[in-house]
Amino acid sequence: MVATSLRCARMIFAPNIVVKVLFVLFGVAFACPIQAQIGRSRAPSPSKPVQTPTPPSPPTLNLMPLPKVISASRNIKLWDTSGQPTLQIDPNTGDINALALGTKDGQQTLISGGADGVVRLWNLASGAPGDTLAVNHGPITALAISPDNMILAVGAADGTISLWAWKQGRLLAAVPAHSDAVTGLIYASDNHTLISASADRQIRVWLLLDNGRRIVLRSSILAHDAPITGIALLSGGTQVASVSEDGYLMIWDLATGAQIRRIFVCERGVTALAVSPDGKTLATGDFNGHIRLWNAITGMPLTFQGNLPQPPRTLLWSADGTMLVCGAADNTLSFWNVNTDKQVACIAAHDSPVRALVLAP
């Protein structure tokens, strides 16, 4: 009887033991991969190199040689072909509004005029000061040297034009040419024809007689509805282009005074004008900071357009006609390749607006 009871007990409890053993073994087998996975997830990952974001590259500019130019603001600087200043002149006379280049005693001579009403001569090689010409008609606003290098024409804020034998420092003649400031002077190739423009809206053509001792008015054109800001001679001296605060570029026949072309440029006004060396292209700068090119024969706009944060004050073409130099109200000089429509360089040139430019020899 006892033996029978023990057999029954083993039969009852054996399956439970088996189940428990299987359960434990199954749990271990099941838990090991989980622990292994947990262990893998907590294990430190291999170190990776830290990648620092690469900053954007600065804009690259074409390193083609720049034209050598002379710029004027409250001082004068000569710039080399890499855009570096090689000479600085500090007259300490206020704003310098006009520049011209001549030759005296075999030396390249820079001529400047500005707020103090005095024309000053400078040795271009050394920057040393030379003679001065006391004009006595208020601030000087325009300068031009005759093609034969003999007579300097000086335009003043009171509208006077005076002629000087500048190498000798001698006044030849003076005339009340305009009722407001003279804003442009250009000699024709014949040495005795001078074209002037003024804030009084007039373009006038003058004959210089007796080796500059007399100035005779040949013709006058009421060209614009607001002050004229620039003029340029075209077509072998038979036409003149003008720009104005009225926003227009105009082209005139000098012989008859007839209007040849009237081109709208900018509603806020045009600030600067320059003609290419071959006479085929005009460049304008306006109050919106735009530089535009125009076909001088047809008056049609060309594709080039430069944009500046401040208005251009003066424009200058390189001798080969491939580059345009702009002096602006934000004190900068910018150089533009007209064949690629790209800005080549921009220089923080002065501490005040750039008011005058000439090509350096």
Automatic annotation (TrEMBL):
Gene3D superfamilies: YVTN repeat-like/Quinoprotein amine dehydrogenase. The keyword Repeat applies. Keywords: Repeat, WD repeat. InterPro entries: WD40/YVTN_repeat-like_dom_sf (IPR015943), WD40_PAC1 (IPR020472), WD40_repeat_CS (IPR019775), WD40_repeat_dom_sf (IPR036322), WD40_rpt (IPR001680). Coiled coil: none annotated. WD repeats lie at residues 89-132, 133-174, 175-206, 221-262, 270-295, 314-346. Residues 40-62 are annotated as: Disordered. The keyword Transferase does not apply. This is FOG: WD40 repeat. It comes from Chthonomonas calidirosea (strain DSM 23976 / ICMP 18418 / T49).
